[in-house]
Automatic annotation (TrEMBL), chains B, D:
Tagged with keyword NAD: no
GO CC list: molybdopterin adenylyltransferase complex
Gene designation: moaD
GO MF annotation: an example: nucleotide binding
Entry-linked Gene3D superfamilies: 3.10.20.30
InterPro entries: Beta-grasp_dom_sf, MOCS2A, Mopterin_synth/thiamin_S_b, ThiS/MoaD-like
Domain of life of the organism encoding this protein: Bacteria
Keywords, ordered alphabetically: Nucleotide-binding
Protein name: Molybdopterin synthase sulfur carrier subunit
Length: 158, 88, 158, 88
């Protein structure tokens, strides 16, 4: 089976990940899924009131993979999904660098959209990654945000 | 023996990434049975540990799963304390 | 300014579209948007009870571009978006062919997710495209589905 | 002169993609002022046009914008009738 979860220092190739989502595990093209949704998160230049120059991503080795897998399994039990792929980078990242990739295929667009959002909302609250930013006022640990907690909690009602 | 890990700003504030504790033999910890009791005992180390570990926002994991303080600890467990996560 | 809307017979290159979403119009990289969401719709092998072998997409030239532009403008007035790109193919398409691309960037993931879904939901109900499928029981026009109407109407309340 | 376009299965069923009508001079249409009146008049063509044009699901556009039957027509308008759309 293809790798579903990767936690890695190296960059990822969006085009290759998209092509992999379209292919069956035997290499033939997946023609039963009509919808592919992808999310990419990037290092942006402004956060929590300050200019950002770069960041370092710390993680809890082993638990990150486990937490991401639990989230994907929860999404798969909630929606009929085809393929799911999650990549999260760690280490030093520069402005505009890619941080995270989530890609989901499904027969129907609703399921693909919701599952991708669900995975990101839970990743933001449950996967043990921490960002330390280099800003115009020095280094600082990013503060967790209430809106991310709320984004995750809405799935409890759904 | 249990392993205790600290991450991110908590690791920096404590200046400690990892501790090993022998629950059965280390006299300081022989009364510790739950995760919350371990946290309370570790917080007694000094004022710095007290203020870092007694914040309500801290997350706790045992064997790489987030749990609450009622979790009973057993030999061989991997315990982790960390601030709210900020990946993605 | 970059092209925002394309209605075309030729295929599109997901990788090139993704790269274009990351770039500012002057070619420098867009570092203010932290979130990129893409949707791709593909010809799938089964629809409305029958096996599908391919399809032809008819459209109303001129009105398709106008309808898509109106939808994008509505999304831009609802959410703070960076770049938006919509491509819809017309003509003869085979199994697994790409049909539609929607890509949106924003400072925040919520806006990017919702705007991409909004654009797809309105496209499905307001943009004058019609699919004629070649199936195992012959050619037929695809029937519009109630669930697509409902998916669009939920935005009236939001 | 107004241009009237038909699309998809409607185009096939009517066997007609496009009509040109002179509202001022074509006696059949001189009483037509709104889009709904145009639809009703076109439906009188024969039984086939009647059944194809009188379905409630048909969408109508004037100058490439979807409108309802109350839309008043004027010289130079581009009118279109079509079934619910199925792109995406």
């Amino acid at each position: 089976m293809d790798e579903m979860i990767s936690v890695q220092t190296q960059d990822f190739d969006m085009a290759a990940e998209y092509q992999a989502l379209l292919a069956n595990t035997d290499g033939t093209s997946n023609s039963s899924d009509g919808a592919v949704v992808t999310f990419v998160g990037l290092v942006r230049d402004y956060n929590q009131g300050n200019h950002v120059e770069g960041l370092t991503l710390e993680h809890y080795p082993g638990m990150t993979e486990k937490a991401l897998e639990d989230i994907v399994v929860a999404a798969q039990s909630k929606w009929p999904l085809g393929k799911v792929r999650v990549i999260h980078r760690i280490g030093k990242l520069a402005l505009s660098d890619q941080i995270v990739f989530v890609g989901v295929t499904s027969k129907h667009r609703e399921a693909a959209f919701e599952a991708t959002q669900f995975i990101m909302d839970f990743l933001k609250n449950k996967a043990p990654f921490w960002k330390k930013e280099v800003t115009n006022i020095g280094e600082r640990w990013v503060e967790a945000e209430d809106k991310d907690v709320k984004a995750q909690q809405r799935w409890d009602k759904a | 023996m249990i392993k205790v890990l600290f991450f991110a700003q908590l690791r920096e504030q404590l200046n400690c990434a990892e501790l090993t504790i022998n629950l059965a033999e280390d006299t300081r910890f022989t009364a510790v049975s739950t995760l919350e009791q371990l946290r309370t005992e570790l917080a007694l180390t000094d004022d710095n540990w007290q203020s870092c570990l007694q914040t309500g926002k801290l997350l706790m994991a045992v064997n790489q799963t987030i749990v609450d303080g009622n979790q009973v600890l057993k030999d061989g467990d991997e315990v982790a304390f960390f601030p709210p996560v900020t990946g993605g």
